[in-house]
Task: structure prediction
Amino acid sequence: MIRAFTLKHSPQEAMILYKTMRENCVQPDHFTFACTLKACSRIRALKEGEQIHGHLLKSGFGLKELVWNSLIQMYANCGEIVIARKVFDGMYNRDVFSWNSMFSGYAKRERWGEIVKLFNEMRNWDDRFGEVTLIIVLTACGRLADIELGQWISEYIEANGLNRSVKLMTAVIDMYAKCGHVDKARRLFEQMDKKDVVAWSAMISGYSQARRCKEALDVFHDMQMANVEPNEVTMVSVLSCCAVLGALETGKWVHLYAKKKRLELTVTLGTALMDFYAKCGLIESAVEVFKKMPLKNVFSWTVLIQGLANNGQGKKALDFYYLMREKSIKPNDVTFIGVLSACSHVGMVDEGREFFVSMNRDFGIEPRVEHYGCLVDILGRAGLIEEAYQFIKNMPIPPNAVIWRTLLAACRAHKNVEVGEESLENLVQLEPMHSGDYILLSNIYASVDRWEDALRVRNEMREKGIKKTPGCSLIELDGEIYEFFAEDNGCPHSKEVYDATENMMRRIKSAGYVPNMADARVDAEEDDKEASVAHHSEKLAIAFSLIRTSPGTTIRISKNLRVCTDCHNATKIISEVFNREIVVRDRTRFHHFKEGSCSCNDYW
Result:
């Protein structure tokens, strides 16, 4: 009866029956102890489990492996992993269930290093390993990026003819993918005769973690063609890739699928959806998902606050932060990055300073270099260049390149040559081959009519062999991702793209656009400079979108670099001339262009 209650998910009834049995002076045997301990494990009843442990020691049944294994499971499940290990170490005879009980306990606590250590002990004890053991250890290898042990297990599986197990091969694929050996994972995946949803999810997740998002979505489309229904893990990985690529239609399909299947809007799925919508520039959709989530944790609030800040809605981001505090949810270090970014976007300098101090004072969060960078951005955006410079000089931790680059960008906006020069000197020591830094200083010189100095910096780049990182812009049309590179004549639809670009440039020139030659390719000849800036990747993407979408359709672009001054000016005019809203996500933030203006207020 105790066993039946435990199996039928009524562990409380099983424990009551055990108590009744004791009251009726019926002596339990090792099966009774094992089943009752399993019931305690199910509901994490540690106190009752300890009492049964005491009964067990008094009864003399303590030498049975079945009971010891149940004890290990109970303590591990109740969070007492150290006691579980003491029980394990005290066993005279261990069977495979003993080892697996300990492995499972460590896995539940994500003690991946302990799993690897224990497996190495097990290898000294036996040379035969079961499926359950290998799956847990492969998971640990993936989390630790322990490719050496993972490879050994993969070879063991092959040598012992265990590669017909779908679960085991899925674990191998997942391990290779998490270790960054995605091509090896893909080869094994293609060799599988049967692929369940877990195998598909492992492959998609692997590509996602390797930032090979286009390939992840290709696998997802193959999965759909194979009529395999995605689960929550699949959808979270797909949404993450859609967020990176700006693949709005695919992400919307995932959301629609979740609604159609009436899937629960869990914290994990809901937060992934919010992140996707925020990174595609649909911040109102992110807010809508947030409001519909029955449960929210600090990560959900943080994603929303960051999303609002990055989309230029700083005041609303801070409103949600205050609401978060009203609900007694403690912010984490990432929350404060969003909060400080919000202060920067709305020009709240004093509030930004206060939040920076509050992190440590009120929440015990030590500011990281990212938080210092946010405060530099707040001061720089407000034109307090000298204060920002002194703040960097007095930092208790060494400033990284991002911090000096943030100051350099502020110097460009406020035409501060002296601090700009100092910023570049520091940047050259940290990242000497970063082309964007030289271009920023060159632009500062150009903005104050120091053309010789601007040219000198460009020539210095050429002499040092510093090449500008090729600009790349992505758009999604009808569920397909299109990729555009600056001045790339080899792209599909090349003639169509360049004809559309020429037509677009003619129209905006008539509306007052003047090319900014300072943004031309460094090695471009004088006669080629105008063509060079006209063929930047986002201009090609916008022109292609204009001819491939209906009038009035919002154009959404993801770009790998910071938007240059020329493209920013051109896109403002394009939005007005063609009556389109254009959303560009560059390396640092969103730009919402509409009716000739941008949400960044020309500061980025």
